[in-house]
Amino acid sequence: MSKLYVFDHPLIQHKLTYIRDKNTGTKEFRELVDEVATLMAYEITRDLPLKEVTIQTPVSEAKTKVVSGKKIGLIPILRAGLGMVDGMLKIIPAAKVGHVGLYRDPETLKPVEYYLKLPSDIEERELIVIDPMLATGGSASAAIQLLKEKGAKNIKLMCLIAAPEGVKRVQNDHDDVDIYVAAVDEKLNDHGYIVPGLGDAGDRLFGTK
Ligand code: URA
C-alpha cells in the first residue's frame, strides 16, 4: 500500500511559504527550492541502512556507522524537476541522475515520452522521481511506469506540493510507490494549477512565461 508522507519540518514549511509568495523573484525562488530540496533529501533518506565499521579517531579505535552501499538514483521529470536536483546532490553526492522528459499530446491529453536517459543499473537503485508539482498525477504516473518498464524495482516520488487528485492518481496506479511532499494543497483549478500552489514551477525556476 502506497503511503503519503508530509514533511512538516519547520524550516521546510517556512521556506515553502516564500516559495509560494508571488513576490518572490526568480533568483530567490531558485535558491529556496534548492534549500528545500536539500532538507527533503535529508528526510527522505532517513531509512537508509547502516553498517558498522571500525576506524581510528585521534584518541582510540571506534566502532561506528556508515551508509551501507544502498545506491540511489535521482530522476527529475523535465523541466521543473531539475530545480531540485542540485540541492539533493549536496547531501547525496554519490547518487546518479537520470532524466525523463514528457509532454502532453494535445489530442489524447496523454503524456508522451520525448527524452529518457537513465543510469544503466536502475534495477539495483532506489530511485527518487522528482517533480515539484504533483497536479493531475499524469506525468508522475507515466514516468514511474516508464521506469518500471526499464526494470526499476524500488521507486519513491518526491514533490514540493501535491493536489489530492495527483496523490490519488499515483496511489491508484502505483500501489508500491510512496509519496513524499512538503504540502498537500486544496485542489486543482480548471487550468490544472494547484490551488493555492505556487504557480508554474518551471516558469518561476527558469524565469520564463
Ligand atoms: N505544474 C505547475 O508548475 N504548477 C501547478 O500548479 C500545476 C502543475
UniProtKB/TrEMBL annotation:
Is Transport there in the keyword field? no
Q: Which cofactor does it need?
A: Mg(2+)
Domain named Phosphoribosyltransferase is located at 6-208
Listed under catalytic activity are: UMP + diphosphate = 5-phospho-alpha-D-ribose 1-diphosphate + uracil
Biological process, per Gene Ontology? UMP salvage; uracil salvage
Name the keywords, alphabetized.
Allosteric enzyme, Glycosyltransferase, GTP-binding, Magnesium, Nucleotide-binding, Transferase
Q: What general EC class does the enzyme of this chain belong to?
A: transferase
Pfam families assigned = UPRTase
The entry marks the following residues as binding uracil, namely I194, G199, D200, A201
What remark does the entry make about the cofactor?
Binds 1 Mg(2+) ion per subunit. The magnesium is bound as Mg-PRPP.
Q: Which GO terms describe its cellular component?
A: cytoplasm
List positions binding 5-phospho-alpha-D-ribose 1-diphosphate: R79, R104, D131, P132, M133, L134, A135, T136, G137, G138, S139, D200
Enzyme Commission number(s) from the entry: 2.4.2.9
Q: In which pathway does it act?
A: Pyrimidine metabolism; UMP biosynthesis via salvage pathway; UMP from uracil: step 1/1
**KW 4Fe-4S (keyword) present:** no
- GO MF term (any one): GTP binding
The activity regulation comment is: Allosterically activated by GTP.
Fetch the Gene3D superfamilies from UniProt: 3.40.50.2020
User: What exactly does this protein do?
Assistant: Catalyzes the conversion of uracil and 5-phospho-alpha-D-ribose 1-diphosphate (PRPP) to UMP and diphosphate.
Recorded hits in NCBIfam families, A to Z, give: PRK00129.1 (NF001097), upp (TIGR01091)
Family, per the entry? Belongs to the UPRTase family.
Q: What is this protein called?
A: Uracil phosphoribosyltransferase
What is the native source organism of this protein? Vulcanibacillus modesticaldus
Ranked from the top, the taxonomy reads: Bacteria, Bacillati, Bacillota, Bacilli, Bacillales
